[in-house]
Amino acid sequence: MHGTTILAVRTRGQVAFAGDGQVTLGNTVVKHNARKVRKIFQNQVLAGFAGSTADAFTLLEKFEAKLNQYGGDVRRSSVELAREWRTDKMLRRLEAMMLAADREHIFLISGNGDVLEPEEDCAAIGSGGAFALSAARAYLDMGQLEASEIARRSLLIAAKTCIYTNDSIVVEVLS
């Protein structure tokens, strides 16, 4: 997925999602301050998305419906979303990825049917995801910063490296 960076970090009783604001169309930046991370399900769950905007919003709506159906169970909702995404003819064409988290779990959800819970307390998606993830791992190893600060600093590092990531960063936190 090109055109964004989303990072999830959990540490010190906090879960933070950070997303950059850049939206590109081909090789042109068309927006600098998009909001790609959200608090959902009565502010108990964080979600972030990368990929086609319309596709990502469709997935976000589907995920919220799953959360409502399964009483806020993020794990079950993630699995059911991935199952529907993979088997439904229309959804299968969506080009996006999601990160979802509650206070205990972080999940990466893809249209291939993947629901991955990282071994470490961080995960990232998007074109700058590998850069942000590497920085977050280093900050987590230091053990000195809050999740929100790790997420923000890690995205700033990604923005200096990835041409599809900017430094207009939105951070959402569950604590």
What can be said about the biggest beta sheet?
5 strands, antiparallel
Number of helices: 4
SSE series = EEEEEEHHEEEEHHE
CATH fourth-tier homologous superfamily: Aminohydrolase, N-terminal nucleophile (Ntn) domain
* Helix fraction by DSSP (H/I, runs of at least 4): 25-40%
CATH topology-level fold name: Glutamine Phosphoribosylpyrophosphate, subunit 1, domain 1
Instruction: Label the structural class.
Output: alpha+beta
Shape: globular
Report strand order across the widest sheet. Answer: 5-6-7-8-9
CATH class: Alpha Beta
Uncertain ranges? none
Average pLDDT, rounded to a whole number, is: 92
Intertermini distance: 29 Å
Radius of gyration: 15 Å
Number of strands: 11
CATH architecture: 4-Layer Sandwich
Question: How many domains?
Answer: 1
Key features of this structure:
single chain; 175 residues; alpha+beta; Glutamine Phosphoribosylpyrophosphate, subunit 1, domain 1; five-stranded antiparallel beta sheet; 4 helices; 11 strands; globular
Polypeptide structure, described:
- The chain has 175 residues and is an alpha+beta fold.
- The protein has one domain (5-174): Glutamine Phosphoribosylpyrophosphate, subunit 1, domain 1 (4-Layer Sandwich).
- The chain has four helices and eleven strands; from the N terminus they run ββββββααββββααβ.
- It has helices at 53-69, 74-87, 129-142, 147-161, and strands spanning 5-11, 14-19, 23-25, 28-31, 37-40, 45-51, 96-101, 106-110, 115-116, 122-126, 170-174.
- The strands form three sheets. A five-stranded antiparallel beta sheet has the order 5-6-7-8-9.
- Strand 5 (37-40) and strand 6 form a beta hairpin.
- Helix 1 crosses helix 2.
- The chain is globular.
- The two termini are 29 Å apart.
